Structures are given as structure tokens and as C-alpha cells.
UniProtKB/TrEMBL annotation:
Keyword Isomerase: yes
EC number(s) from the headed UniProt entry: 5.1.3.2
Position of the signal peptide: none
Full protein name: UDP-glucose 4-epimerase
Pathways involved: Carbohydrate metabolism; galactose metabolism
Name of the top EC class for this enzyme: isomerase
Pfam hit, one: Epimerase
GO biological process, one term: galactose catabolic process via UDP-galactose, Leloir pathway
Keywords of the record: Carbohydrate metabolism, Isomerase, NAD
Gene: galE
Cofactor(s), names only, from the UniProt record: NAD(+)
Length: 330
């Protein structure tokens, strides 16, 4: 395959690029390097492009034709929930505008396969033990809205392609809490998620802050489904292969482990792996944090034959190793 990966120099995108190149696929990386790191994709063809720019569609079409691209994996997007509340128009412009240009380029070039980076943020605050794909989506912030709107746009593009008799399929992957590092040099440097935030504070000699310890959970702290970034990357490969097989009876999939871990459990695991005493500070709840958010992964297991291989200990250990915080061997 010849795959165009937008946001390919980012944390998740670079893991997918690494797996694609390791199995022999040709890869073209598209990234504006606003958060991506060039060293992650060194030696690969790269198009430096803001997907929401006025000339993005034409430049994408030219690159697709030049490199013989047959599939696209679309990661490039703004993804900070708090920032999306402060700058909603910017998020609509970048995330929806960028996808608009991707779909326009798909239409002009005849690309047949697209994998879309969606999010569990599309669900909002579901009041269920396990979140299944057919649950009604009610996003509670502009970031989640852009992901859900993106899914609608793609579904409409598929319908339009079918009406024209043109082959086009897409898979939307709703990620839960992505963490860990498949390779140390590809580790998460954005420090926007729990594990890198805790590691950063511990490294600085500060106590991590737990936002709320009075939730209706076994230990009072929020429960989330943490999935290793390498497992997530493998899900994208499985999605590409699923579309190539011609079986697209389902097009949206949760990507998680199906098992939740509380904030306290994550911090305790970090303490165990680093060999440090970590005593968190307790803060007030954050608005919009559901008590628990855990994926029902039965659909992706059945349709894509995908299953997460790594648990919380491996996720934390890989992140700690990438941060250089493993205790010295005795």
C-alpha cells in the first residue's frame, strides 16, 4: 500500500508510520509541525502543510498523484479539550476545515480507503458501565463536536460516492485514553494526559493533583480505559486491511482494552514502577469529568480481529522508561 498519514509526526501518528514502514508500505507524511516532531519521521517523504490552508486541497491532490497514494490515515487535528472551549472557532476551522480538504482531495483523486482518528469524546458523559458504539453521542465540548461532525461528514461522503458508483470506504476509530510508548523516541511529549502529567510533576519534585476523590467509584477517583499507543497503532493497520478485504459492514469502532483503571490505580502503578513514594494532592472535581469511561471492544474484536496486548503495567513501564525514570538496577 501507499499511505498518506496526516499528523504523521505526532505521538500517535508516528507510531502508525513506524508500523507501516516496518511492514513495507510506502508512506507520505503530511504535517504542519505545530506539535509534531520532525525527527520522528526522519528519512521519509514529508509534505509540510496546514490542512486548513486555502491551498491545502490542491497541494494534497498533487501529492497524492505524485506518490501514487491509495489510502489515507487522518490524524491531524487540534485535540485539547480545554483549549477547544476557549477557542471553538479555531477548532472548527482546523478540525472540520482540514477534514473538508481531505475529503475534497479524496473525491478528486479516487482514494478508496480512509481511516479517521475519532475519539471517545464523541460520547460525552455516558451513564453506562461499558460504552458501545451504538450509544447516542452527546459531546460536551467543541473538540468532541468536531470529531462527531467529522464522522458525519465521512458518512455523507461514503453515501455520495456510492450514488456515483465510486468505491470509497472509511473506518472511524474512537480512541479511549492513549498512553505509553512503543519506542522511546516516539513518546508523548505534549504532557496533556494523566501519565505524562504525573511523571512530569514527580520529576520536578511536585505532587500530582487528583481532581476529585468523591466519585461513585471503588476508590472515589475517576476510572478510564487506558490503551497502549502501540496497540492503538495496530488497530489502524487492522482497519486498513479490513477495508482492503472488502468487508465494511461496520465502520465505527471503539479502541480500548475494555478494562478500566482509576486515577489512584494509575498513580500507584507509577509509584511502583519508578520506585518512588508518590503522595498526590486532592483537588476539586473538574467540570465535565464522567466518573467512568470504559470501552466495549466486542465489535472491533469481532470485525477487525484486534485486541489490546498491553495492560496498565506495560503502559506505565514503557512511559517511565521513555522518560528515563526507571530506577537504577541494583
Amino acid at each position: 500500500m501507499a499511505v498518506l498519514v496526516t499528523g504523521g509526526a505526532g505521538y500517535i501518528g508516528s507510531h502508525v508510520v513506524r508500523l507501516l514502514t516496518e511492514r513495507g508500505d510506502d508512506v507520505l507524511v503530511v504535517d504542519d509541525f505545530s506539535t509534531g516532531i520532525a525527527d520522528r519521521v526522519a528519512g521519509l517523504p514529508v509534505l509540510d502543510l496546514d490542512l486548513a490552508a486555502p491551498d491545502a486541497e490542491d497541494r494534497l491532490v498533487a501529492a497524492i498523484d505524485e506518490h501514487g497514494i491509495d489510502s489515507i490515515i487522518h490524524f491531524a487535528a487540534k485535540k485539547q479539550v480545554g483549549e477547544s472551549v476557549e477557542q471553538p472557532v479555531h477548532y472548527y476551522r482546523q478540525n472540520i476545515g482540514g477534514l473538508t480538504n481531505i475529503l475534497a482531495a479524496v473525491e478528486r483523486t479516487g482514494i478508496a480507503s480512509l481511516v479517521f482518528s475519532s475519539s471517545a469524546a464523541t460520547y460525552g458523559m455516558p451513564d453506562v458501565d461499558l460504552v458501545a458504539e451504538d450509544l447516542e453521542c452527546r459531546p460536551i465540548n467543541p473538540y468532541g463536536e468536531t470529531k462527531l461532525i467529522g464522522e458525519w461528514m465521512i458518512d455523507n461522503a461514503i453515501t455520495a460516492a456510492q450514488m456515483r458508483g465510486v468505491p470509497f470506504n472509511a473506518v472511524k476509530l474512537r480512541y479511549f485514553n492513549v498512553a505509553g510508548a512503543g519506542w522511546p523516541e516516539l513518546a508523548d511529549t505534549a504532557v496533556m494526559n494523566l501519565i505524562p502529567i504525573v511523571l512530569g510533576r514527580v520529576a520536578a519534585g511536585k505532587a500530582p493533583i487528583v481532581f476529585g476523590d468523591d466519585y461513585d467509584t471503588p476508590d472515589g477517583t475517576c476510572i478510564r480505559d487506558y490503551v497502549h499507543v502501540k496497540d492503538l497503532a495496530e488497530a489502524h493497520i487492522a482497519a486498513l486491511d479490513y477495508m482492503k478485504s472488502g468487508d465494511t459492514s461496520e465502520t465505527v469502532f471503539n479502541v480500548g482494552t475494555g478494562t478500566g483503571a482509576s486515577v489512584k490505580e494509575v498513580i500507584d502503578t507509577i509509584a511502583e514502577v519508578t520506585g518512588r513514594d508518590i503522595v498526590p494532592e486532592m483537588g476539586e472535581r473538574r467540570a465535565g469529568d464522567p466518573p467512568a469511561l470504559v470501552a466495549d471492544v466486542s465489535r472491533i474484536s469481532a470485525q477487525l480481529s484486534w485486541k489490546a496486548e498491553y495492560g496498565l503495567d506495560e503502559i506505565v513501564r514503557s512511559a517511565v522508561a521513555a522518560a528515563g525514570m526507571l530506577p537504577a538496577a541494583k
